[in-house]
């Protein structure tokens, strides 16, 4: 893990921070998650960590950047997880998956979160969950006045729109957690969610 963190730091690759990752892994463990879809592999850091929670966990993860995809492939092989992590190269919005998953983790292009959620929410099993990372985006979502660059302001606006989308969604109940860079935990409304607090 140390080598991956070093690579990410040196090559400006965003990976989950320690607190957000801990929340994620605890949630997976406590909710007996076995099948995971991840949107945004980067170098495989979170996919590998998730797979290592339990030997029965299988992860499908999608990455559109070829350089990061190849680095993720190398890391997955180094941990001997090729049989449990299925790495796909491509834009997630262009990929069709029929399988249903216990858990979907969205950690890719922030401006596309609503599209990712809409596209892949049918792939969530009953009693399944979608967790979205970077909901507070380095604190900028709550302090937009700090932002000078126009394109960054537009991205923050997209994240704010996504938060509203989650709050208004009729099919999912969402709780927001100020853990790491902000996490949104969305669970189907017709299912009783009793385990979120256990993951804190």
Query: What shape does the CA trace take?
Result: globular
Helix/strand-derived class? alpha/beta
Give the H and E element order. HHEHEHEEHEHEE
As residue ranges, the low-confidence spans are: none
Q: Which CATH architecture?
A: 3-Layer(aba) Sandwich
| Quantity of strands, as a count | 7
Evaluate the radius of gyration. Answer: 16 Å
CATH superfamily membership: Vaccinia Virus protein VP39
What number of domains? 1
How is this structure best described in words?
- The chain has a seven-stranded mixed sheet with strand order 3-2-1-4-5-7-6, sandwiched between helices.
- The chain is globular, with a radius of gyration of 16 Å.
- It has a single domain, classed as Vaccinia Virus protein VP39 (Rossmann fold, 3-Layer(aba) Sandwich), CATH 3.40.50.
- With 200 residues, the protein is α/β, with parallel strands linked by helices.
- The mean pLDDT is 90.
- Strand 4, helix 5 and strand 5 form a beta-alpha-beta unit.
Outline:
This protein is an alpha/beta fold and 200 residues long. Helices cover 34% and strands 22% of the residues.
